[in-house]
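Re: the request from the purification team.
They wanted to know what the chain is likely to look like in 3D before they choose a buffer screen. I agreed to run a prediction and write the result into the notebook, where they can find it.
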Amino acid sequence: MEVIHSGTASHRRALWIVLSLTGVFLAVEFVTGLLTNSLALVADAAHMLTDVGGLALALFAAWISTKPRTAEKTYGYYRVEIMAALLNAVVLFGTGLYILYEAYQRFRDPPEVVSVPMLIVAVIGLVVNLIGIRVLHGASQESLNLQGAFLEVVSDTLGSLGVIIAAAVMWAFGWMLADPVISVVISVFIFPRAWKLMGEAVHVLLEGAPADVDVSEVRAALAGIEGVAGVHDLHVWTITTGADSLSAHVVLAQGATIDRAQRVLDTIRVLTQEQFGIAHTTIQIEPSSLEREEPAL
């Protein structure tokens, strides 16, 4: 039985490292934000909470994707990774809207913020995020979940820089509006990433063609194989990140033999794998007639 490999499952150790670091710092940042009355810290902590949730979902998806297929779930549980990415995007949108609401309240009535502890925690957060970037960078192209987690950590790094700037401004000049201003900037970074992640996840769930595969090129390549008269009902979709599939009806040329049909099938498997990176193919041969080749005398 063909085994489909999940990009997330092969990087569980990296996910555990970043999840542990992010989870510990999340608690520190949130408590410090409440004690110092800093919305920017609380906003960054809320943003980091989405990272923790996304990483936890990715780890859950990595675990459940290793469960064997069943008669009811013939592809196994690989789509759980994509569903987790979609849920993560929804949470990101909700977090961004909440931060904007809280910032609006603070623009109307800016509270006093204790800036020095806020500055210290933000610097620690910057270090934690830089470590996370380092750990996830190499794996970020192999999984939609890992890509989302990596982009979140990058955005958190920018958020930490923003909090550092806000704390420095409040400490040096006493301008308390710096706190909600930076909070708005952090939330603005959330929405484009959430939209991109949601779009990619929905595209996979709708079984759209992979972004790196041109279906017209696939059709032309299959039609150009010797002995093929036509191609129809061609479909290319993604099961999970890094696992693309293809199905097609291939019409053989007149007078094709059973042996020629087998050679066409073998050629299709090699071509789709090597040229388009599609390892899972289902091909229906539609010849006008099949004749067995006479053995050579």
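For the purification team: The chain is about 65% helix and 10% strand.
Please add any questions underneath this entry.
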